[in-house]
Amino acid sequence: MTDLPKTKDLILEPQGSVLTIWFNRPEAKNSLSSEMVSELHAVLDVAAQDASLRTLIIRGKGGIFCAGADIKGFKSGLQDVEPNADDVARGNRFFGDLMIKLNEQPQTVVMLVEGAAIGGGLGLCCIGDVTIVTRDAKFRLSETSLGIPPAQIAPFVTERIGLTQARRLMLTGARFKGVEAVHYGIGHMLADDSAHMEKKCAEVLEQIALCAPRANAVTKSIIFEATRRPRAEALDFASRGFASCMLSEEGREGVTAFVAVSYTHLTLPTKRIV
């Protein structure tokens, strides 16, 4: 694995093809400080270039996922200097860049959500390829109750759950828990508690290990391009991705393994594709 950057507000735990990224500000409910966002940018940049990584797991220390932006730190910063709209907008957009980067990370991203996911924390849940939430986890898009909009997360939340629910949740600041989060589509799986969440995560990791990492990365890019390009262009893009995977070493190995399987039983390969 490539050498990872040094971090203060994140704990990084590489294990084989999996990198677990822990938010490590439990005293601040793992709120996203500018330093934490910068550190996460740096980690994702390195991870994106590491072909040995299949999966990123993102979770929070102290039994809480993430309480969103560090409002106290933001307020303190405004008191130290004269507020400037361009500077405020630039700082806000920096988090948006992180959302784009994490959303399109080549690895499969698994979010493990317990305790609470508020504001930007809820936004992060919406860009997990697989998001597992505990039944008692608390969710809220609280920004408008603070006098600010959910600016950088709004497109991702809307894309995830649809315009109807996004409008209601953003404009009311409604509180809800894990069952509703799965119902809305924020989470994919519901866990009874932390131990159950760990078990479900292990099952997901086993499933990911049976998928070719390059094929997963290309599949993610095809999914995103399908929402950006006219249909014919999206299919052209997908065909080039298909060809690159089919002719790669992992593609040849996977197809050979499939052909070797008896069609009578239609058994899918269970061998891990390197």
Structural features:
3-stranded mixed sheet; 2-enoyl-CoA Hydratase, Chain A, domain 1; 11 helices; 274 residues; 6-stranded mixed sheet; 2 domains; alpha/beta
Structure in words:
The chain has a six-stranded mixed β-sheet with strand order 1-2-3-4-6-9, sandwiched between helices. A three-stranded mixed β-sheet has the order 5-7-8. β2, α1 (34-48) and β3 (55-60) form a beta-alpha-beta unit. It has 274 residues and is an alpha/beta fold. It has helices spanning 34-48, 71-80, 85-103, 120-125, 154-161, 163-172, 178-184, 194-209, 213-226, 231-246, 249-260; strands at residues 10-15, 18-23, 55-60, 108-113, 116-118, 130-134, 138-140, 175-177, 189-191. The chain is globular, with a radius of gyration of 20 Å. The chain has two domains: 10-209, 2-enoyl-CoA Hydratase, Chain A, domain 1 (Alpha-Beta Complex), CATH 3.90.226.10; 213-260. 49% of the residues lie in helices and 15% in strands. The chain contains eleven helices and nine strands. The mean pLDDT is 93.
